[in-house]
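the two lines:
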Amino acid sequence: MVVSTELPHQGIVFWPVGTGDSVTIVIDDEHVLQVDLHDMEMADEEGATVASVVDRLVEVFPEGSEGKPYLAAFVLTHADKDHCLGFSYLLEKVMIGELWATPRLWREYADGGDDELCDDAKAFQVESERRVAATCAAVDKGEKPASGDRIRVIGYDTDHSEHAYSELPDEYLSYPGDAVSMIDGKELGEHFEAFIHAPFKDDCAAERNDTSVALQITLKDEQGNEGHALLFGDLGYETIIKIFDYSEAHARPERLAWDVLLAPHHCSKKVMYVPEDGRDVLKQDVLDAIARHASDTGLIVASSAPFPATNSTGDNPPHIKARNRYEEIVNVICTGEHPDEDAPEPVVFTLDEGGLTLLSSTETLAKSAETIAASTGARLAAAGLLAGIVAAAVSAVRRGKRATTERRGLDGVREAVATARGDDAAPQQAIGFGSR
Amino acid sequence: MVTDGHRLALEQLRELAAVSSAIEVVAVHEEAELGRFHVEISVDCSGAPHASDGIVLRPRERFSLLIPSDFPFSEPWVRVRHTRWAGAPHVQWGRHLCLYAAPSIQWVPADGMHGLIDRLVLWLERASLGELDPDELPLHPPVAYVWKTDEFVVVRADIGDKGPAPQAINRGSAPGRPATGRPHGHRILIARCEVRSDRRADIVEWVEPAEWLRRFVRGDLLASSGRRAFGALTVLTDGEMFFEYPDRVEILLSGLETLGVSRPEFFDALGIVAAVNDLLRNPSAGDEVFPLRVLIGTPSRRSIGGTLRHHLVCWQVDDLGRRIAEDLPWSGSENEALAELSRRMHELTPQWVRTSSIDWVQVMEARAEITQRRDRGSAASWVQGKRILVLGCGALGAPIAEFCVRAGASQVLVVDKDTVTPGILVRQPYVDADIGTAKAQALADRLNSIRQDQPVQPLVGSVQTLVLAEGMPPPAVDLVIDATANAAVGSLIELRRTASRSDWPPFLMVIIGHDARRGVVTVSRQNATGAGRDILRQLMLACRRPNASRLSDVKDDLFPDEPRALFQPEPGCSEPTFLGSAAELSALAGLMLDAGLSNLSEHAGGKGDPMAAGVVRLSPADASDASRSTVDWLGWPNAHCVIDRARGYEVRISQPALSEIRAECRRSARVRGATVETGGLLLGRVDDACRCIWIDQASGPPADSRLSSVHFDHGVDGVSDVIDHHRKRSGKETTYLGMWHVHPKGLAGPSPTDRSSMHALVAAAVGGPPRALMLILAGDEDRWSAWLSGGTAPEMFAQLMARQALGSPPPELVTHSTHESSSWPGGWALPVPHTNGKRRGFLARLFGFGGRRV
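prediction for all of em together
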């Protein structure tokens, strides 16, 4: 395999997949961790601006056993459609070394709540149960499970004992407070670590969103560079503040550090606003906590469709109010708006001296990758896994209609003042008056 | 409690938020913050231009608006939650944004939140560019928060070049930033602080430490000025440490270290100051302990005249620190106990530094080098540094003297003979306790309390004896202002000034009309021929001229045809006065002084004229003419002066009169021949008080005059009419004065004929005027011709002939018989020469003049 040393090797890609999560973490040229999936091709949404994530990944993943493209692990934070859409397709096309699952699905199945689950969530559950069985079988034989059969169950549940996964040996179970660097049976600690913040045991029976896996992803390289990303799934205020409080109380602030924060729940206001007496009350503490652990170059990614100018009560995320609060901390990048709405490109962070740094021109990296691939006559991956993924992602962009955006910045404020003063305002229409 | 003002503020903010998402109301707090209604807003700051020394704006910024209950009548405070901008200019307490340098003029209640947000946007843009503190704009100096509000320091002495030249400020966000590369310099001085009160000490001098010690040893530091004095350590640096001064000693000393002031050096000097202060105190006299203060001078943010001056803050060292410092200098003492104590104090010092906080004392600047005078550029600034003599301390003189003191006159002499009586308190600036005190003294006492240098000297007594007595030299001042409204004083000044005009300073006289709605200020520049009396007279004549309708109110008010009934405020023989309020009089006094000084500084209307009169009015001259300027100026050229040979009176020939004489001479030379004498009437007035003769008008020879090269016989046709005309028009001010004639290309002196004619004219026997002026104009050929063609005036001879002075009977009348063969008639008709022997009337014979000496 020809790899250009010019191109970055490690990084994180946030795909423009509308309001949903698809995060690809490139640990090294062999190993990729996919957190959630929202394949727009599967969604078949009108106006979708990106083609199938899975198809693109397949083009560049290294070849695994059975001749299939190889994905080291897939993490499902929780089983909502906007996090797992396209999983069965992925499973069909790709050899997934290891699955990371939460006890929550077992609970929902046990509760008979599977009617609410989408097909891909069900497929994930079926695959999880297969792997639990396969793992137990291997363990029974005194062996390790093979790649493709592996599973890691993350978090507690009060009803552990009722489910098959409770039979798994401890090494296949992880809990909040654990740091994981072993993936698909390989120790990747030189380049990678995932610290598990959630789900908490207390939340096991809460809303599904509140049972999301919360991770701090750390990428490292040989030069000693280190970068951190916080992925909090669809968690809301209560759980997130608990995460910060808990780790601060346990004096492990380094586990909260971030260069990139994926705005929880597609930039939902539920992170910092809590309804009280019918009004949204701002929770400054969580914002302060987020700000406290940001690196100097920190950025927040909202994985969502473009923001509307305003939200009405009851609107689903993304919420402009939440974005405004985040922007009081750092810049916010919306996957649906980056670099602009008509042609969103993946938001790519690469590891360098500044930690995880936003790649200023994804197109440049994509072009480099294509050039290298063409010159070697090899697949895109020849340029390196990360570059290949970016190149594949950029080529997947569909051009759409450009939306007009409201004027922003201090000039906007000044205009607002002028408008509110009514300085230049004159009636725009004739108005009739009369007694009859 | 939420007030209407709070609701209005919130409503305005929500309106703004509804217009644009660039501004958002994030939270409305139920709990007050710092006693104010607390609203948080979020502002879109994305894309704001940024420079490296500006503050860093995030895409959005949150602001706490702390809204006062009386909004919009006072401005909200704006704070931020974070301290990211601490240290930037105009961020105080780390979080408070200083949006308004002067809320009283910059905060617009009607604009409310709109104005505030506008201002905030401007602040943010400038802050982001690092332009909040442009070099030349007077914004806030570095802030030392004043903790001790009960004491303060007034800085009077200029630092000048006693400190190191401040280095240009190298702005950044962090304190302790280095300046321009060259190493920092500093200077340690000791400020001499005079105790003014329990709360106040004035810095009157900056002294070198060595000199301070020498003076102490000599005993010179003890209260020489009658005021107790102590020293304050002064560290002048050439660089900046902080925008906000710290409240911890440790931080301050570290900051000083970055500018090269080491702690040993600092404490050595502090010890000397503290120990000397302690020794200066006289405990047995009950002297309180002197405070130990440290003044720190850093480059100011504003250059003055291109020079950066020092900005001073004052730290009052706490009691423990003072006691430690007092013992520091004795470590080398031969007294072992003292030396030991001192060593222990040296050991204690670092701990004290670590644990002590700083009390900042309010510094009030009065240094001339940094204080911009608030009257800069005004007319009143003319008096700055000048000596002023104010005659009269009444309703005009007292305010005028005060204005001069405030305007910075170096010396103000005030003269008045009267004492303060109860009635004058209605409008003169005296107080009840002054009753019975001499006005000049009471005024001087009060005005001397305005300024530390006490520039006012009272002269109690009459102006006539104290200033204008016979034989006194001209006042040694730069300006004399007559505010006595006393005709006798006016005349006396006219008289005294005439004698030594060139030694007199400029002169102003102020008078007001009968109801205090109008005033006149006269301006006589140095060497002007007339003073107040003269100028008022000319103003009066000007008012009475035809087409002088713009001055008709002045005439009615100040120069009425019939004398006004006098107003006598107290029963009996009190001095009559006028009606008018303190408000009117102060206004008029201010207007007149301002007008007079403007004129002197050539600011305005009367520019250039040696003499001018400015009329000021509190109401327009007439309702239809409200647009007229505040001051109506009239100006006059100097008169031509000749000394009367009889009594030494000064004859002041007005320019119109002289022009008239010349016109006649030209005409005569043209039509009658260059050698023919001519002459005519003189009209004006003799003022025996001023010893002055004003010639206002002159006329040519009447038609029945006879003129030849040896003789001029003044006729009588129309003479009475001319005199009547002028008498009537001038209110009897301009009347028959005498005769002029010329000796073309001859001598400026009377011939025997001239003499005998004048004798005859004023002789009692003939019933003519009791005295008359004879004016003869003459000159050699060149001078005469030059004058006729517009050059300087010819030689003149003037003599006021008076009946009493004649003594012996008149000599023989020399009559027309001496005319040569023919003569010319006067008047304007085409001249036909007279032949001798024509019969002429009595008057005509009397008015015969002849140029030929017999």
